[in-house]
Amino acid sequence: MNLTPAHPLTRHLLPDLIPNEVSALEHIAPLTAMHAGPAGDLARLIIPIDKVTAEWDPKKASSTRFRLLKEVHRRQRPYWTWDEGTWAEAAADAREFRFHLVALGHQLGGHHRLHGTTGLTSLARFADLVFGPQAIQPAVESIEATLTAWRNSTHLLPWQVRNTTIDVLLSNNSPHLEDLREPLLQDLLEHYRATDAKGRRRGLFKISRVLADKGIIASPLRTNQDKAGPEAAALATVPPEWREPALRWMKLVTHERGTKRSMLSAILIAGRWAAEKHPEAVAPEQWTRDIAAEYIADTMTAVVGQWAGHSRNRTRYGQPLSPSGKANRIDSVRSFFSDLIEWEWIKPRFDPRQVMSMPLSLRALMGPNPRIIDDATWAKLMAAGLTLNSEDLKPYGTPRARAAGWQATYYPIEMLRAMVGVWLFAGCRMDELRRLDLDCITWDEGTDQRTGETYPICLLHIPQNKTSLPFAKPVDPLVGELIDAWKLVRPPQPDLADRKTGLPRQHLFCHRGQLVGNAYLNENIIPALCQKAGVPAEDSRGALTSHRARSTIATQLLNARDPLTLGDLQQWLGHKHPASTRYYAKILQRTLTAAYKKADYFARNVRTIEVLIDRDSILTGAAAGGEQPWKYYDLGDGYCSYDFFAKCPHRMACARCPFYVPKESTKGQLLAVKDGINKMLEQVDLTDDEREALEGDRDAIAALTLRLADIPTPAGPTPKELGTTSAFIPLTQLTDTAQARTRQQQA
């Protein structure tokens, strides 16, 4: 791995030995007893060596020079033409002069990774030979001081960070940090990954964070750099005619990184499908309307893993694709073809928006279905989160940390409590939680309008997200208290570039120079809370994750005693469209049942009226012969003796036809005292007009009376003919009277 050119003294020398040098090399003597003649003939070989070893111990320098010249004589090639392997062989044979010979190979041969090839154990000693005594100390101490201030583990600094720092400086052939550049760090990262040097790799990430903080490089190295794109094995299963435009599309499309990776996987699936079904039309420009329609049809019947190529994920392998899986495949390929046509990479042969549209049957299965956590489990998780301590997290530390007795949580407990508080109360996305600003809390004071008492207001400032600009939302004051407690003990941290805006700023959940892990909450904290609360880490809807808390909190706010409106909830969640809110909150069954009961739908459409039954009229047969009525409906001021009262259009505004019996009349008074009269209740279905009249709307009563003026009564004449259009009997208090009597009877 030759990262820089050879030494300037040897860079332009001829690649072969001249005759005088060959002859002189046969007569060289060890140490300093070299005759003037041979020394003069070997000046081209000796002068660069002497310049490099001028600061060395004279005895060591002379012995190393002799060993190097002997190797030149043996190989009959000047040392500036040796490759890294040749220098390594020469150093292996030198034994006690191995360090010094490797140093000459580093300086004169330009092989700045030779110390790694030869396996030197003391890089600090080797660096002193190359750069001079203690020349690298300022750089090493600067790196270690910064990492210590960020609260990095001090036990890792001597063997992980220091050795890596020296290795980086040697590879760059300079003892100064300011001379380092990002391409060198990227090359070293690939080298460490290829050689499985995990300690050096971790140290390099830490060093890169310090270099980025000092402004030497633009940004620190990413730990997931090797996962930034699709795997080589997965790409190898896709035909080149499809793979190349897909990879080119991924470089230019402006979606989020995660979205691009997900879409590319679905696009590559379409390429494998084309290679299997239509090998004559693998390239995107060869697809026709029929091929596109066939792909959509096959996607609707596809199973998990079909056309996935090299995939190590065997979860649900061979089972039918979920509706969201089908939608992802269809939407991704439709967007892919739409972009290719829009960018004029291919000529349009069909309209992707029509031919590759999502089938209505699939769209019907994609409705909102929030994955909320039930109230009992959520209450237990909240209690566990508010009492979280380091002991609860020890089982979830790394095996090495548990075995060595190190702090198993890695992060300070104050930081974890603040993070759990935000998760339990703020309803944030995981990305929003990780990117919270250091000064994300604002305190205010409100006044209760009923009691006049003041109360604290805690506003949490949410950074820019995927759908909205930065905004503030009210949260429980406990969240602000936990965040303030973390800020009191939080060590200084570097400014990190925000993932959305690219601007450097202080992040709240930053420790040891980096943001909290993206999966730390799901893989460490939530399992610990479930263990502490005594609840399973999964339920019927799947694993308990950070994002499910967002749905749970939104649903509880929508179903509270004084609930947030859908518009309020939309703003609190930071959604751009109200439709998005429906995917996070739903009306619970108990809330819907209580609202339905409160609406009193049945009572609004059915009213109860008291009926008097004349038993004597029935027993004597007078009712059967039509001589005498047997049923009397209590209208309040009188009775209606019409048998089919429920069908009478004038029942809610009686026109006093011949079926009407006033209570003040002799017959009415006789009914009140007559023996053999039974009382019962009968339900009457109401129309909209009758319901409005019954609820006491004067305008509705007048309008109802006006509409009934020309409608015949059961006896025949109309209210207008009876002269009762302005003297009707509205049954507006019938329900109250009947219900009051019913309550009395039940009591």
Textual characterization of the structure:
With 747 residues, the protein is α+β, with helices and mostly antiparallel strands. It is 49% helix and 9% strand. The longest helix is centred in the middle third of the chain and has 21 residues, at 257-277. A hairpin with a 2-residue loop joins β8 and β9 (542-543). Residues 1-5, 31-37 and 732-742 have low confidence and may be disordered. It is built from 37 helices and 16 strands. The strands form 6 sheets. It has a 5-stranded antiparallel beta sheet with strand order 14-12-11-10-15. Strands 1-2-3 form a 3-stranded antiparallel beta sheet. A two-stranded antiparallel sheet has the order 4-5. The chain folds into 5 domains: 19-120, no CATH class; 137-226, DNA polymerase, domain 1 (Orthogonal Bundle), CATH 1.10.150; 232-363; 375-581, Orthogonal Bundle (hpI Integrase, Chain A), CATH 1.10.443; 602-746, no CATH class. It starts with 18 loop residues before the first helix and ends with a helix.
